[in-house]
Design goal:
The complex is a heterodimer of chains A (112) and B (457).
Chain A (H helix, E strand, L loop, with lengths): L1 E7 L4 H10 L6 E7 L6 E5 L2 E5 L2 E10 L1 H15 L8 E6 L17
Antiparallel strand pairs in A: 1-5, 1-6, 2-5, 3-4
Chain B lengths: L1 H37 L4 H40 L6 H28 L24 H23 L6 H24 L8 H4 L8 H19 L20 H18 L10 H28 L4 H16 L7 H24 L8 H18 L7 H31 L7 H6 L1 H6 L14
The chains are: A alpha+beta (112), B mainly alpha (457).
Chain lengths: 112, 457
């Protein structure tokens, strides 16, 4: 089992979600985050003083998948979240030790 | 099926309505004609009735205007909270709420008498406290006039809460609020407006023009704001040691814009209402008021576009207010074209003034000192420059005297008051309280309980 975390631009979240569902992903968790990588922040002015906005709003999508779905999912995200500009985001794939469904207590791949 | 049922219902309803009107007319007409026959109209009784109707028009207009000016309290509340941080929103609301509440009572107990009572010296009123004029058969006009004046007093008081936002002890602010409406505002007001009721002021006797209060209301509030901000010191993190000005953005620009719209709306009571008479003069005053606001917005827009390369929203909003404050003194004695000039000059001046006060490290979160103090003085002087009867040095001199005497009076009284509060109750909150936000420490509330607030400063 693997955990796939994607940091994407907020306005592309809908497209990424749909693409993931099309390859067979059934559940996900989405959170609003701030961050930066190579995309620099920008400078805004407020009543005559400038201030730097370094942390940019992004959306984090987390999915727990069985191994076979990881590559299709990654492909789906790459296809929909890419704009060829700095700030497109990143995908992190990590190993998942255990998954438990709270309602039934199921563990393992069946709980995905 | 449905259409025809509705149509026939409408026709039946229409017929019934016409029948009702006819019946009423037929029933009332004979009675009316009988009344007319009883009281033969004389020239004297007509004149008395006409005067009464005019008097009633005065009452109606004055009270409608008073209510419009009351709504400006909401305008100030929205502007101030929109331009400050969410963690202080409850505190701003409370300060604005209490400005009017405490102010109303303070003005009742002391302020109105000081401002409009009989004034043997020309420097302050000496009667009319606790509405003592209100005998049982007293002239009801007193009530209308008091109502109109109390909302003006509260306007002066609430100007200061913006400049002192985000770091003032609530208890200290309440004390200040009571004193300005009870004492500081009314005494100066008596110099310029005392004769509107039972008083007479030394300043108005010299011919000082301040129709609706660029100086009496706005500069008085603005200079009190200045001394409050100076005595408090800037917010934490606002000015770096190397002189850099750190922006602390407001948390809700739409709210600030709503506030400005509400103030603009209320100003149509503030300026035209100062006739306290329902007559034709109110029309041109309303036009002047509107044009100055519009010109102020455009001028501020252009100025900030030029200086910052982008049209700054908050600056344009301040520009509207600057125009409105500036036109408040001359609104009854200038032409509409002059109002455009006055508003435009104020719109440019306010942008420069906001930058200036930041440069000398006086932290004014909403620009109250620039909008009300500086532009109030500016408008008062421009009342002489653009007077429709022509410019005279003598008139400019009197205007300048009024501006200067307001500055001196408020600096001495408000300055001393803030100093006294600082040394006794304490004026500013602790660093921890300022960091956490006043809502939590002063009021035990959160303004937005469902939102998590992550801030850099």
């Amino acid at each position: 089992m693997k955990k796939v975390e994607c940091i994407v631009r907020p306005h592309l979240m809908e497209a990424v979600k749909t693409a993931l569902q099309e390859v067979g992903v059934v559940g996900m968790t989405v959170s609003e985050v701030k961050g930066f990588g190579r995309q620099k922040g920008h400078t805004e002015t407020y009543r005559g003083s400038e201030y730097k906005v370094e942390f940019l709003p992004k959306v984090k999508i987390e999915v727990a998948l069985s191994e076979e779905l990881v590559e299709p999912a990654v492909e789906a995200v790459l296809k929909t979240a890419k704009t060829d500009k700095f700030g497109d985001g990143k995908i992190f794939v990590s190993a998942l030790d255990e998954v438990i469904r709270i309602r039934t207590g199921e563990r393992g791949e069946g709980a995905l | 099926m449905k259409a025809t049922t509705l149509g026939s219902l409408r026709r039946k309803g229409g017929l019934a309505f016409i029948a009702l009107i006819l019946a009423t007319a037929l029933g009332v007409a004979p009675a009316a004609m009988a009344d007319e026959a009883k009281a033969a109209a004389t020239v004297e009784s007509n004149a008395a009735t006409i005067a009464e109707v005019q008097s009633h028009a005065d009452y109606v207009w004055t009270l409608v205007a008073a209510v419009l000016v009351f709504l400006m309290q909401a305008g100030f509340a929205m502007v101030e909270t929109g331009l400050t941080r969410a963690k202080n929103a409850v505190n701003i609301m409370m300060k604005n709420l209490m400005d009017f509440s405490v102010g109303s009572i303070a003005f009742l107990l002391l302020g109105f008498g000081l401002m409009f009572g009989t004034s043997p010296t020309g420097w302050f009123g000496t009667d009319g406290f606790l509405l003592s004029d209100f005998a049982k058969d007293a002239d009801k006009w007193l009530y209308a006039f008091w109502m109109f004046q109390v909302v003006f007093a509260a306007t002066a008081a609430t100007i200061v809460s913006g400049a002192m936002a985000e770091r003032t002890k609530f208890s200290a602010y309440l004390i200040y609020s009571a004193v300005i409406t009870a004492l500081i505002y009314p005494v100066f007001g008596s110099w310029a407006w005392g004769s509107l009721h039972h008083g007479n002021g030394w300043l108005e006797k010299l011919g000082f023009i301040d129709f609706a209060g660029s100086t009496v209301v706005h500069s008085v509030g603005g200079w009190a704001a200045l001394w409050g901000a100076v005595m408090l010191g800037p917010r934490m993190g606002r000015y770096e040691k190397d002189g850099k000005v750190m922006a602390i953005p407001g948390h809700n620009i739409p709210m600030a814009a709503l506030g400005v719209f509400i103030l603009w709306f209320g100003w149509f009571g503030f300026n035209p209402g100062s006739t306290t008479a329902g007559n034709a003069d109110i029309a041109r005053i309303a036009v002047n008021t509107n044009l100055a606001a519009a010109a102020g917005a455009i001028a501020s827009l252009i100025a900030s576009w030029g200086i910052f390369r982008k049209p700054d929203g908050a600056m344009a909003l301040n520009g509207v207010l600057a125009g409105l404050v500036a036109i408040t003194s001359p609104c009854a004695t200038v032409t509409p074209m002059a109002s455009v000039y006055i508003g435009a000059i104020a719109g440019v001046v306010v942008v420069l003034s906001v930058l200036f006060f930041d440069r000398i490290r006086i932290d004014d979160p909403v620009g109250a000192i620039s909008v009300h103090g500086v532009c109030g003085a500016l408008g008062t002087l421009l009342a002489a420059v653009f007077h429709e009867e022509g410019f005279t040095m003598a008139r400019l001199g009197v205007q300048a005297l009024g501006v200067a005497s307001a500055f001196v009076w408020v600096s001495v009284t408000a300055g001393f008051l803030f100093f006294l509060i600082k040394k006794t109750v304490g004026l500013r909150v602790s660093e921890e309280e300022e960091m956490d936000g006043l809502d939590y420490h002063e009021h035990g509330n959160t303004a937005y309980p469902n939102f998590q607030l992550i801030e850099k400063r």
